[in-house]
Every structure is written in structure tokens, then in C-alpha cells.
Amino acid sequence: MPDSPLPVVAGIGLRAAHMAQVRAEHPPTGWLEVHSENFFVDGGPALAALDDIRRHYAVSLHGVGLSLGSADPLDKAHLGNLRGLIDRIEPSAVSEHLCWSHVDGRHLNDLLPLPFTEEALTLLCERIDAVQNALGRTIMVENISSYLRFSCDAMAEWEFVAALTQHAGCKLLFDVNNVYVNAVNHRFDPRRYLAAISGDSIGEIHLAGFDSSAGCLIDTHGTRVAPAVWDLYRESIERFGPKPTLIEWDTDIPALEVLLDEAAKAQRMLEACHAVAA
Amino acid sequence: MQSLRDLQRSFCAATLFGDPVALASLGIVGGRLDPKARIAVYRNNVLGNYRKAMAATYPVVQRLVGASFFAAAVDYFVRGYPSKRGDINRYGGEFALFLVSYRPARELVYLPDVARLEWAIDQAAIAADAPPFDLEALAAVPPSRQAALRFSLHPSLRIVSSPHPVFRIWRANQVDQCGEDRVDLGEGGDTLLVSRGNAGVSIERISAGDRAFLAALADNGTLAEAAGRAQEVEALFELAATLRRHVAGQTIVAFRAP
């Protein structure tokens, strides 16, 4: 199965609000990422727009609803929809999250935290294997933000993530913002996280903004990337080498130029990192 | 130690239903925030996601009742009507059904039908595409065989009927609608055809005969049978004009000879 063939440059998350402008202007961005589920449709203008986008850009399909960590069986219909979209779009990368979303058939449609236990680790490895077999390709899984921890945890988050990428045969979509948010929310040194991760396992990096409310940081994807997260990003690519990097923005979506500006900043850091490596 | 399934069940019960026993059983590590406050972050996120998704599907219902009333209705709806898919965009098809018996909205008798119309619009936008109608092939069918033709309707087609003037209510509550368009609830009901053509989703009022005609075609009836059904409810039903309009509007997308 191929490695992530995303170009090692900065890209942006494409949302409906910017679709028309991106199609009309083809702004210079390395690649685009969309949420897979937004295109789980039979037809219509949204799917036609994505077909058009794909003719001009490398596209990454980022899923939010497969629920790899549910004790419930894997949702075969969801997986079938994803398979259909992959066949149609021929994306450069396919990713999902290290989380769960449904129990007893009820979807909560959110990225919910797993306990860091052997049971969860084993389940995730089985599910990722099943998904990769069904899709016939390697997927990436993303570390999520969380607002609580369970006392039954048998290991730290970074140990869990490192073990998973070692045993599940998938790549890691390393979300630097989520590492920072969790470091603040759960009081750990984010450098311990970086130290546990192997650069070879990382296929993509995500950057986004968070908000602060009710005594914890919330991963809203609604602001610019925070200075502390930029610092952690620079450290990450210095340690892991340059990786395809995405700017995500999902709430209070600003002008496209703001996203492109953030992506340009990431691109400059990637180039500086390339220069040092060369 | 509880199983992963039990933990996920308890998480759901604590988040959506505020179940204190489930919350305690989760073994949430406290710290600066207590477990209740931490679960509340998830409750706000989960319900916030549903409110946002439902507001995108039902903007007119939201406008009619106001944002806070709408949010409360969605919160209540979510608990009783579980989401069955990992795709939140497709959630909420039973909202009209829910609104029929949602007591705080009982005086807004037209609200469930407005919700049905908005759901039909939402579904029409994502229905399968259809190739353009082959007019030349139709023209080549000898007149003697036309009555036996069967027609396929566009996959986006939905019909919404209501004893209330839901089309005027819907139009008066579009964001680009300024001015004080008042709708007289006593002015009678609507039968609406919702479909998607090249220009996007459109809504048009159709007659009782047209409705019967399309229903007959959808039931795989022949052109003659559909025309007969239309004339039963509408003596002056104009077959040729109706057929032309539906072909031009891409409501009818293909035909099959016997």
C-alpha cells in the first residue's frame, strides 16, 4: 500500500463557504482537504463541485464519522459510502480520527475520547485493519482534542498513539493543535508527546485555532493558529522532518485569504525546515 | 473495570441525559474542572453540533420560532430521535413528525408542514443526478404508441401537500425577503413540487390534477393511465402542456416504450 502521496507543502481545509471562490480563482495552495461525509450524497451540486475541484488539486478525504473506537460493530454503510467516494474522487490521502462516536446504534456525531487502555488499543488495531482492507489502502488516524481523562487509563496518550501507529499499520495524522490543547487541559509537557512519536509514522500535520472557555481549551477551529502552537509546529517539523501541513477552519469561517495567509506561514516554516535538512 | 461498551453507554447517558449515576461510573479525572463540568463541555459540543446542523436544514422553522426556541426544540428532539448515521448533515428527517406533538409549538399548526417542505428541499439538493431528457427519441415514437409510454421522474422530485399556505410562509421567511409580507393563514393550502434542475432546487405550486398525474407516473403507470387519474380530480387537466412543462423543468427525465 502506498505512502501518503500528498505533496509536502501546506494546504487548506475546503469548506462550502469557499467552494465557489476556489473553483473560480484556483488560488495557489498545495492541496485541499474536505470532510468526507459532506459528500456522502447521491448527486447534486456539492458533489459536482468536488469533481471539479479534483481536476485542479490534490484532495485529501478527512472523515469525522466512521467511529473507529466504538464497541459497536463498524458501520458498514458508512464504510461503503466512503469507499464509493474514494473510487469517485481518487484522493491522495484518506484519514479518520482516534475516537468513538456511536454506542448501541445511536450516533453522537462528535469526536469522543477513548480511555487509553489495552482493550481500546486492541479494538482500534482490529478496526483500522478492517477499514484498510475494505478500502485497499493505508489510512491516517488523527489524535483528537479532549476535555476529560478516565481514571482507568493504563498509559499516557502519547504512549497509546505511539503503540497504535506501531501495531495498526496505519499512519498518524499528527494534529499539533490537539497536542497543545490536551497538554494545557490535562497538564502535561507537549514535548513528552513529541518525544514519543516516530517521524516516519506521520503522514500529515494539522494546524487550527482553539478557544478558551469554562476553564479549558476547546478545539473550535474558529481562530488563527495560536503562537504557542506555531512554536510547537516548528519543533515538530524540525524533529520529524517536513510533512504535508493543513490549516483547518470550521467555525466563524473567515475570508479565504485568511486561510491562505495561515497556510503561507506554514509553508515558510516548511521551506526553512527543508533548507536546514538540505 | 468496566468494558469499553459500558463506558461508552455511560458517557452517552451522562452527556445527553445528565444521568448522575452514569456520570459517576465513568471515573472522570477531576482537577481544575470537576467531572460534571467536563461532561458539560461535551454536552455543549454535541448539542451545539446538532443545533447548527438542524438550523442549516430548517432555516425557516428557526426563523419562525426564534433561535432560542429552536435550540430548545432541537435539544429535546435529539434525545428522543437518535441520530442513526455518522453523517450529521443527514440528521433530522423526523423533525416534522416531532413538531406535530411538541407541545410548546402546538399553536403554530403550520410548523410541521414548513419542516416537511424544508426537509424535501434538503433531500432534493443531494438526490442522484439524471441525464437530460432525450427529446428526439420521444419525437420518434409514433402517436399511436404514445399512450402506452411510461416516464421516469427526476430522483430529486418530492411533493409536499399542506392545508396551510406553506409556500407563502416559506417565501416570506427567506433571508433576502425584506418588507412586511403578511400571510393569511386562512387563504388555503398548497400542493408543492420540489425538484432540482440545472439552476438548483426549485419549488412550484402544482394543481391537484398535476399531483395525481405525477403520482401515477411514479407508480409506473402509462401516460394514458396517468392522464386518466389527473382528469378524475381535475376535469380541465391539460395533458400536453403539463407534459411539456415537466420535460422542460427536468421533472420528467426519461421514458420507456412498452
Report on this model:
The complex is a heterodimer of chains A (278) and B (258). Chain A is an alpha/beta fold and 278 residues long. Chain A has a single domain, classed as Divalent-metal-dependent TIM barrel enzymes (TIM Barrel). Chain A is built from nine helices and twelve strands. In chain A, strands 1-2-3-4-7-8-9-12 form an eight-stranded parallel β-barrel. Chain A has a two-stranded antiparallel ribbon with strand order 5-6. In chain A, a hairpin with a 2-residue loop joins strand 10 and strand 11. Chain A is globular and about 50 Å long. In chain B, strand 3 and strand 4 form a beta hairpin. Chain B has a three-stranded antiparallel β-sheet, with helices on one face. Chain B is mainly alpha-helical and 258 residues long. In chain B, helix 3 packs across helix 5, helix 4 packs antiparallel against helix 7 and helix 11 runs antiparallel to helix 12. Helix content of chain B is 52%, strand content 11%. Chain B folds into two domains: 108 residues, no CATH class; 143 residues, no CATH class. At the A-B interface, helix 2, helix 3, strand 5, strand 6 and helix 4 of A face helix 1 and helix 3 of B.
What characteristics describe this protein?
heterodimer; A: 278 residues; alpha/beta; eight-stranded parallel beta barrel; two-stranded antiparallel ribbon; 43% helix; B: 258 residues; mainly alpha; 2 domains; elongated
Give the strand content of chain A: 15-25%
CATH class of chain A: Alpha Beta
**Helix percentage of chain B:** 40-55%
Helix and strand content put the structural class of chain B at: mainly alpha
Amount of helix of chain A: 40-55%
Task: Give the SSE string of chain A.
Answer: EHEHEHEEEHEHEHHEEEHEH
Q: Find the count of extended strands of chain A (DSSP E, 2+ residues).
A: 12
Biggest β-sheet strands, sense, barrel of chain B = 3 strands, antiparallel
| Count of discrete domains of chain B | 2
User: Ranges of chain B with pLDDT <50 over ≥5 residues?
Assistant: none
The most extensive interface, with participating residues per chain, is:
A-B, 52 and 50 residues
The CATH topology label of chain A is: TIM Barrel
Task: Tell me the number of helical segments of chain A per DSSP (H or I, 4 or more residues long).
Answer: 9
What average pLDDT do the residues of chain A reach? 95
CATH architecture of chain A: Alpha-Beta Barrel
Cα(first) to Cα(last) distance of chain B is 67 Å
Into how many domains do the coordinates of chain A divide?
1
**Content of β-strand of chain B:** 5-15%
Which quaternary structure do these chains form?
A: heterodimer
**Contiguous runs where pLDDT drops below 50 for at least 5 residues of chain A:** none
